[in-house]
Amino acid sequence: MGAPGAGKGTHAKDISKQFSIPHISTGDILREEVAKGSELGKTAKSYMDEGKLLPDDIIIEIIKGRLQEDDCKNGYLFDGFPRTLVQAQKLDTISRIESVIYLKCDDDILIKRLTGRRIAEDGRIYNIYFDPPPEGIKTYQRDDDNEETIRERLRIFYDTFTPIMEFYKKKNNFHEIRGDEDRTVVYENILSILKNIQKGR
Ligand code: AP5
Ligand code: MG
Fold this sequence. Notes:
Layout: H1 8-19, E1 23-25, H2 26-36, H3 39-48, H4 56-67, E2 77-79, H5 85-94, E3 100-104, H6 107-116, E4 117-120, E5 125-127, E6 139-140, H7 147-170, E7 174-178, H8 183-200
Parallel strand pairs: 1-2, 3-7
Antiparallel strand pairs: 4-5, 4-6
Helix pairs in contact: 2-3, 4-5, 6-7
This protein binds BIS(adenosine)-5'-pentaphosphate and magnesium ion.
């Protein structure tokens, strides 16, 4: 978990590879639907372009369907879900969440990261300020990575996050680390949390 730009997608891709579990990003699923031009994609786009959250029932249906796929049998990693207390409560009835990792970052860093984000065609996430794409690599910018939408996304994050954090803190599976340190340091800190969980199984 983390605010827009905290590094959820960046680290989730590495964790997914290292632990051989699927990376389930509701944002990526919705962007795929937008690209396909499906009915869901059309609905999603109207919310995403304004930085607003989609209704909980739509998101829960997507997750229920995704968890039934074969690759979820040995675990999975969510990115950008749950995003409301209702989503967290619903999730609790269909899945056992072993650990929640919150990447905490200051807003000035988040805004620079989001305005500087560039995505390659293979999904690799770059940043013109912190991790520039190599010459010759074609990249694009997300439609919601403009300053006005970024501010709305951040506002919604701060409005909705506290009850979700409290929900997981009560379950004793909530871990908070700094997301604004060097990428390798953040990843090492995530790994030490995940390895401790593996030891405790
Ligand atoms: P979503 O796609 O989830 O976007 P988000 O939460 O706004 O988060 P981002 O993807 O922007 O940030 P990130 O934390 O993944 O950062 P990244 O790793 O790319 O959601 C988009 C929209 O979909 C929502 O607004 C909503 O409309 C809808 N939606 C999605 N899920 C929903 C749900 N559950 N319920 C309802 N609606 C939903 O990194 C950012 C940049 O920083 C990159 O350029 C990266 O290179 C750089 N960076 C990362 N880490 C570091 C580091 N340590 N040092 C330097 N640079 C770094
Ligand atoms: Mg992301």
